[in-house]
Design goal:
Elements (H helix, E strand, L loop, with lengths): L13 E2 L10 E3 L2 E4 L5 H13 L8 E4 L5 E4 L17 H25 L31 E3 L8 E4 L2 E5 L6 E3 L1 H12 L17 H12 L3 H28 L2 H8 L2 H14 L1 H8 L1
Antiparallel strand pairs: 1-2, 2-3, 3-5, 4-5, 6-9, 7-8
Helix pairs in contact: 2-3, 2-4, 3-5, 4-8, 5-6, 5-7, 5-8
Length: 286
């Protein structure tokens, strides 16, 4: 599928902020051009599904340009920086993030059921590699997937208009997951669920158990999901330590930079912090 530049759009490229991993992303008029990744075909199919079911919080996949890059819609709005500014901690914005995530999961139900949690034939999702010194997964296995989702709803991947989350960008890590796992990942970045020593300027004074409750209410977590949330988040942190170490070793680039910058230690601190304050978070969720 080849993308043809509309008349009058031109070819002026505006470099967009570099992510942790993907580089070379540019804006051209009303479109964004992204380097092709091994998972690009699966992501394109997913974006086309979201468009077909009427989910408006994701860019449309438009094809590939003459340089072979993926072309998607440019979603206009504000995106928090890295680290995110204090305005991104607004409670109304947090509520809208929870609702947007729930809408994405609802839109993905049919896709997941029809695909059996697999990428289309001949394509594949992003796969986290294990470190070469790990022969057998030493932590609890990830639960059986329920939906295909974004899997990386960080502040830097959320488009905001008038103080509310309206769209998601950068679907490179999209793939099969569970609703609660994806919720926990989102909460990790938006509550945020991280040790105070790793929390961004201005965010350390936030009531994080209360913010987790706000996000859970906005999403609509069930009583059972609330009861198990902290345990799921703690287990997920253990798996992510291995995943990030494996990605740094086998994929290099931005993954290696993050590992060298101490992301592994940050994840360990998060895991210990969640364990220490488990009762506080669980009580707030009741």
């Amino acid at each position: 599928m080849r993308y043809e530049v509309p008349s009058g759009q031109g070819d002026i490229e505006e470099e967009l902020p570099r992510g942790d991993v993907t580089e070379g992303v540019v804006r051209v008029g009303s479109t964004v051009r992204r380097p092709v990744q091994p998972q690009s075909a699966a992501v394109a199919d997913y974006l086309k599904h979201l468009e077909a079911v009427g989910f408006r919080g994701a860019p449309r996949f438009l094809g590939r340009d003459r340089s072979g890059r993926d072309v998607v819609d440019y979603l206009a709005g504000d995106v928090p920086g890295d680290p995110p500014e204090l305005w991104a901690a607004d409670e109304g914005l947090l509520v809208s993030v929870g609702r947007l995530l729930r809408d994405l999961h609802t839109a993905s139900d049919g896709y997941a059921a029809s695909r059996g949690f697999a990428a289309p034939p001949g394509t594949s999702w992003f796969v986290w590699p294990l470190p070469s010194d790990v022969k057998v997964q030493k932590t609890a296995a990830a639960p059986a997937p329920e939906v295909v989702s974004h899997n990386d709803v960080t502040p830097q991947n959320v488009v905001i208009r008038d103080g509310r989350a309206v769209g998601l960008i950068d679907f490179d890590l999209a793939g099969p997951t569970t609703r609660l796992e994806d919720f926990c990942n989102t909460a990790t970045h938006w509550v945020p669920l991280r040790d105070p020593v790793d929390t961004w300027p201005g965010w350390t004074t936030l009531d994080r158990p209360a913010r987790l409750r706000v996000l859970a209410d906005a999403y609509g977590l069930t009583a059972d999901e609330r009861a198990s949330l902290v345990d799921v988040a703690t287990s997920r942190a253990a798996r992510m330590w291995l995943s990030m170490k494996g990605a740094a070793e086998h994929l290099g680039g931005g993954w290696a930079r993050m590992w060298d910058d101490g992301v592994g230690d940050l994840i360990r601190r998060r895991q210990a912090w969640l364990t220490a304050y488990r009762d506080d978070f669980t009580a707030a969720l009741r």
